[in-house]
Amino acid sequence: MKRFAATPNGHDSASTRRSSVLVAAIAVLGVLALTSGNALSDTGNPTANGPDALLLTPALFDEAGTLDAQEPAVLCPFGVIAEDVPDDGGGAIAVTWELGDAPVSDDASVSADGSVSADGSAEGTGGSAAVSGFEILRFAPGEEPILVGEAPVTDRRFVDDTAEAGVSYQYIVRALSSVTGPDGVPAGFADSIASSAATATAQWFATSRLNALVVMIFACGAVMFYIGRARTGSELYIRRIPGLEAVDDAVGRATEMGRPVLYVPGIETVSEVGTLAALTILGHVAKKVAQHGTPLLVPTADPIVMTTAQEIVKQAYAEVGQSDRYDPTSVTYITYDQFGYTAGVDGIMVRERPEAVFLLGYFAAESLILAETGHEIGAIQISGTKETSQLPFFVAACDYTLIGEELFAASSYLSHEPVMLGSLKGQDFAKFWIVVLIVAMVAIGTVGYAITPDGSSVPARVFDAVKTWFAGG
Amino acid sequence: MGSPVVMVIGTWLAGFLTLAILSFLYKDNPFYKLAEHLYVGVSAGYWLIYVAFFDVEPMLIDTFMTETGVEKWLILIPGALGLIMLSRWFPRTAWLSRWPIAFTVGIGAGLGITANLQGYVVPQVEATLIPLSGWNLVSLSNLILIVGVVTTLLYFYFSKPHKGVLGGAARVGVVFIMISFGASFGYTLMARISLLIGRLYFLLHDLLHVLD
């Protein structure tokens, strides 16, 4: 077993043969440096190109400089290129390399110009047959190469995300033999020549996300336009949302029955948009509750949500002139634990027997447990979430369900405030043009590929360009 | 791992609490109340410790102690906002707590907009841009996908009454939504049944040793 130890990575070489192998390798390199002007860079690192890369495979050679017929050939990566990963915050360098397709036979030899071939005369090509994988080694000026990662034999790209921004690094790709020794480690390896230096740098703008920026500007522009129109007094129509029509009925029914209203704002934090929508609707429900003098229960799973909900309920009571009837203990914290919270809310349901239950916000696996318990106690239930995996349970167990965006539209519908109405109209405007874009581009793409299936027609190219843009390319 | 005696006690305790929670299927009872209050109390305590030692300590205290330069002082801003939240304890300064709440809500809304646009809207539009080529099953599948996306979007169009062409498209959209809900329902139900099986296996194997 022979190992090339010029680039230490933990693989021990047979010390008795290492020096002779190294001498042979240096000799071959020296000859080739003299005969091939571009084989070595001025920094001592060979430039990356295909056949030359095989020059740094001393593990394959014996003292005579020919490939050892006793050991399987380990093919050498070549064309190693290291480049800064674009559109990131710095700290990552992408390394790419190549490896030929045909294996070098065991009786190959090195020609005078450094190329290797099976017959010893033609240019040799590498191949993956004798390679089990790759190790990526990195070194900065004045440092020893260190192992920074591994790649499977099918990969030709590796991203080193441990690079320090601003430091210049070079990389060596080491091909590991597919033959293993008795100790289970590869029987040999071959190192590529070092890549040119690359430095990880941070970019201010991720160009791959330009599409998201343009869509956001378009959508936000539409929202601001319609908010402006709403403020000037323009009549903005919003269609009826059945689930919201039932809010007043549910609160009224609870009042008549003399039982409380239970409002569950989900299990997530206040930074979750579903929770924000739920808290907005809570304000409307709290006003109705305050007007009717109905008890309100708001168990929360997050301290910030509890604080926010307390502020909202307090404000709602104040707005309808019922500040003195506001009970700070109506909004309580249970626990952040998902099923601990569920157990607590279930207990409240069966003991307080609320007549109206609102399940609005972010819900996960506890959705059906809560909805089924509410159904069991005979409460009128209004639910809503954007989690598509939980909506089926709400649809099955609740009287009314706000599906996805209806939850977000609910606050606008209930408040009829210009800002919120304008916001909803702006979103509708964006949705309309997305539908138009999809229909138009599908039609253009279908016609284009019908004309020229290879995609060379103008409509097909337009279609491809738009699709690529949305893909971030 | 504790001693065998502790393990046995732990297994019996877990078995008792499992049965106590499951007794809720019959009706509310003292055993369920005991398990519920124990669960809520233990989990609240757990999260208090978790937040203290896995959020506050590493992200605030350790960061402040180890960072250098501007990062060291930037960390004081969220620290100060967290302290301001405690002003709610004092009625005269309770209004100050609205600042960190506003900060948190604003951050949530901002992140939500970009995350949803980048994570859902743009990829969905890109995935729906599919040319229909020829009369075959692939084209039919693509057509169903396109019609499903477009009609579902139209269902969530709130600016016009759902009448006429828009009403028809919205009704088709509802069909697509309900079909997806049905598939999701079945898929999730299977996952829940596997959870139930896991709990029954604990009772029958670990507790009662009925199963091998």
Give an overview in words.
The complex is a heterodimer of chains A (473) and B (212). By secondary structure, chain A is of the alpha/beta class. Helices cover 40% and strands 18% of the residues of chain A. Chain A folds into two domains: 15-199, Immunoglobulins (Immunoglobulin-like); 236-416, Rossmann fold. Chain A has helices spanning 15-35, 50-53, 210-231, 242-257, 273-292, 303-319, 338-352, 367-376, 391-397, 405-415, 418-451, 458-470; strands spanning 78-84, 93-98, 109-110, 116-117, 131-139, 146-152, 157-160, 168-177, 189-191, 198-199, 261-266, 296-300, 331-333, 356-362, 380-385, 400-403. In chain A, helix 10 (405-415) packs antiparallel against helix 11. The radius of gyration of chain A is 34 Å and the shape is elongated. Mean pLDDT of chain A is 80; it is low at 1-70 and 102-128. Chain B has a domain at 133-212. The chains are: A alpha/beta (473), B mainly alpha (212).
Topology:
The complex is a heterodimer of chains A (473) and B (212).
Chain A: H1 15-35, H2 50-53, E1 78-84, E2 93-98, E3 109-110, E4 116-117, E5 131-139, E6 146-152, E7 157-160, E8 168-177, E9 189-191, E10 198-199, H3 210-231, H4 242-257, E11 261-266, H5 273-292, E12 296-300, H6 303-319, E13 331-333, H7 338-352, E14 356-362, H8 367-376, E15 380-385, H9 391-397, E16 400-403, H10 405-415, H11 418-451, H12 458-470
Parallel strand pairs in A: 11-12, 11-14, 12-13, 14-15, 15-16
Antiparallel strand pairs in A: 1-2, 2-7, 3-4, 5-6, 5-8, 8-9, 8-10
Helix pairs in contact in A: 3-11, 4-5, 5-6, 5-10, 7-8, 10-11, 11-12
Chain B: H1 4-22, H2 30-66, H3 70-74, H4 76-85, H5 98-128, H6 137-155, H7 164-207
